[in-house]
Design goal:
The complex is a heterodimer. By secondary structure, chain A is an alpha/beta fold. Chain A has 20 helices and six strands. Chain A has two domains: 210 residues, no CATH class; 182 residues, 3-Layer(aba) Sandwich (Rossmann fold), CATH 3.40.50. A six-stranded parallel beta sheet of chain A has the order 3-2-1-4-5-6. Chain B is mainly α. Chain B has a domain of 62 residues. Helices cover 72% and strands 0% of the residues of chain B. Chain B is built from four helices and no strands. In chain B, helix 2 runs antiparallel to helix 4. The N and C termini of chain B lie far apart (41 Å). Classes of the chains: A alpha/beta, B mainly alpha. At the A-B interface, helix 1, helix 2, helix 4, helix 5 and helix 11 of A face helix 1, helix 2, helix 3 and helix 4 of B.
Chain lengths: 498, 99
């Protein structure tokens, strides 16, 4: 039986890698997820006859029932929520599912640590009694002697214990961190600190967590293990709390990579090669993706994690001069209808307003009039990498109209109208001009070089990062204050008439 | 199956390179689906959670094991559904892609 189980895991690992490989090209992407899905179903089904379960000394029947009940309830809830959530809310769902994976890895570690600890307590009493008789000590003295020798590290085996504890730490951090990321993206939680001197507190909490991780290896006490997990939960939450919306894509990607690593480490503890391979592949792929994103923002990862984006640094930079100049949909529509090239810069605001369909309708009308229309996507526009691409794909925009930052930046100088919808920080010239700005150094879309800039924005407030945007006050910028979808609908009406 | 120290190290190393290579030349347009897809792949933690719960002996182990299976199943199923939905939108529109 064991051979069949191991062969199935091998096949699953191959399917995962092939699936991910296929997912990295648009043409084969759908085939990829189906392959990976097949691998998952195979691995899950075969695990029901895993020798570790069938030969367990525990209440096997009850455990089988528990397994099936847990999968049924959770699987149904996840399937239902995944099917009905709107496309714009996908980032927080990915954060949520990712957090669940991290939590699962941590819980596996908890079970293994608990098992190791219980074998210690069980044998301590027996060994102490033996020792007391042999050496003529009191039972208490013998017990202390035995306890000083038996640790969780020794009971699990040194390398398994180390990897298991590291996996527990990473998994727990990914769990609570992802939940905070989910709450922030879902608009349930918007604070950037819960305590004064949050950054210093965070460092202290991390240090304490690592201390208790080490202690867990050298202990036989359940209390230490519980404190370790509690600290790791707090550490993950505190890590995510100071991070502002603009950095969220990077952070979700980072937690995704961390969960992968945690799964890989727990796979080692359980001796499960499918978990080791799938977890490590995701850990490596996720780390690379995280780096690509951090690089796109020209911010080292440490900066993203520890600088507290938009939490006060904005006050140091000078406010822009002049006033915002308003424009009505009428004039904006006419301007675009008579332009020869229009570049549209979407941001998270477009996602919130669900404006992508109306925008595409407008673009099709403009194309009928012979206007060249392009979409410019900043690498970190939205709340996840490629977030805007997915939304535009949903609305039916073909790939070849969508341009990355490097490809489009040279074109703005030849563009008649740049239409910014719901984007803010990714077009803020302060990133190039103002060394005092917290986003200084981040590459931006050079929207201000266009002849005319129209910004669709709900109100006069600052962007998600809390940084004032000089673009909105520029000479060639006109503001169209409205909800993204309503503004786009109004533009469609205007463009239709011309 | 027992995996000894250095063999595990080699598996880690090779798997890490594989993950790196798989992602290295991916177009931006697929970043979100791919993150979602890799999010689904680490749902394999379900297998470990099943083993952990399957060999649980005390009620405490059963409770934590149950939580593990519950969370892992959510990761696997939710990860699949969301990725599938995102990739659904790419079908039949892939002529002239930049990828």
């Amino acid at each position: 039986m064991n051979t069949i189980v191991q062969l199935s895991y091998f096949a699953a690992a191959v399917l995962f890698i092939l699936g991910l490989k296929s997912m990295s090209s648009p043409k084969t992407a759908r085939r990829g997820i189906i392959w990976a899905g097949a691998g998952m179903v195979l691995a899950t089904l075969i695990t029901f006859v895993h020798p570790s379960i069938t030969h367990s000394e525990g209440p096997v029947v009850t455990n089988y029932v528990l397994i099936i009940v847990a999968i049924a309830i959770s699987g149904f809830l996840a399937w239902w929520s995944g099917k009905r959530v709107p496309m714009t809310d996908m980032p927080q769902m990915v954060a949520l599912y990712n957090g669940m994976g991290g939590g699962a890895a941590a819980a596996i570690a908890a079970v293994e640590l608990l098992k190791a600890q219980s074998t210690l307590t069980a044998s301590v009493a027996a060994r102490a009694a033996e020792l007391a008789q042999a050496k003529d000590l009191t039972v208490d003295q013998a017990r202390m002697l035995v306890e000083s020798q038996g640790t969780i590290g020794a009971a699990l085996g040194t390398d398994a214990a180390i990897l298991g504890i590291i996996g527990a730490l990473i998994g727990t951090v990914a769990f609570s961190g992802s939940l905070i990321a989910w709450a922030k993206l879902d608009g349930r939680f918007n604070r950037n600190s819960v305590l004064p001197m949050q950054q210093i507190v965070n460092i202290a909490v991390f240090a304490a967590t690592i201390l208790f991780a080490v202690l867990t290896f050298f202990t036989d006490s359940l209390g230490t293990v519980i404190v370790f997990f509690a600290l790791a939960l707090v550490a993950g939450a505190f890590m995510a709390i100071p991070i502002g919306g603009a950095d969220m894509p990077v952070v979700i990607s980072l937690f995704n990579a961390l969960t992968g690593l945690a799964v890989g480490f727990e796979g080692f503890v359980l001796g499960n090669p499918a978990m080791i391979i799938a977890g490590t592949v995701v850990g490596a792929a996720g780390s690379l993706l995280t780096q690509l994103m951090a690089k796109a923002m020209n911010r080292p990862l440490t900066n993203v994690l520890f600088s507290g984006f938009g939490t006060g640094a904005a006050a140091e930079s000078e406010g822009p001069e002049g006033e915002m100049k308003e424009i009505q949909a009428e004039d904006a529509g006419i301007m675009m209808a008579y332009a020869s090239q229009v570049v549209i810069v979407p941001g998270y605001g477009m996602a919130v307003a669900q404006a992508q369909h109306k925008i595409w309708e407008m673009v099709e009308l403009l194309q009928d009039k012979g206007v060249t229309v392009k979409f410019a996507i900043h690498p970190v526009a939205g709340r996840m990498p490629g977030h805007m691409n997915v939304l535009l794909a949903e609305a039916g925009v073909p790939y070849d109209m969508i341009y990355d930052m490097e490809d489009i930046n040279a074109e703005f100088a030849n563009t008649d109208v740049a239409l910014v919808i719901g984007a803010n920080d990714v077009v803020n010239p302060a990133a190039e001009d103002d060394p005092g700005s917290p986003i200084y150094g981040m590459p931006i879309l050079k929207v201000r070089e266009a002849h005319n800039v129209i910004v669709i924005k709900r109100g006069k407030g600052r962007g998600f990062s809390g940084v004032e945007n000089h673009l909105f006050f520029a000479e060639n910028t006109r503001m169209l204050f409205n909800d993204g979808q309503k503004a786009a609908a109004a533009l469609v009406q205007v463009v239709k008439q011309f | 199956m027992v995996i000894e120290g250095f063999v595990a190290l080699y598996i880690f190393m090779l798997a890490a390179f594989t993950g790196y290579e798989v992602i290295a030349r991916v177009p931006v347009i697929l970043h979100t689906p791919l993150m979602s897809g890799s999010n689904f792949v680490h749902g394999i933690v379900l297998v470990g959670a099943m083993v952990a719960l399957g060999q649980a002996e005390s009620p405490a182990e059963q409770v934590i094991g149950f939580i593990a299976v519950f969370l892992a199943a959510g990761n696997a199923v939710g990860g699949y559904v969301s990725t599938e939905r995102m990739l659904e939108m790419f079908k039949s529109k892939d002529e002239g892609g930049k990828g």
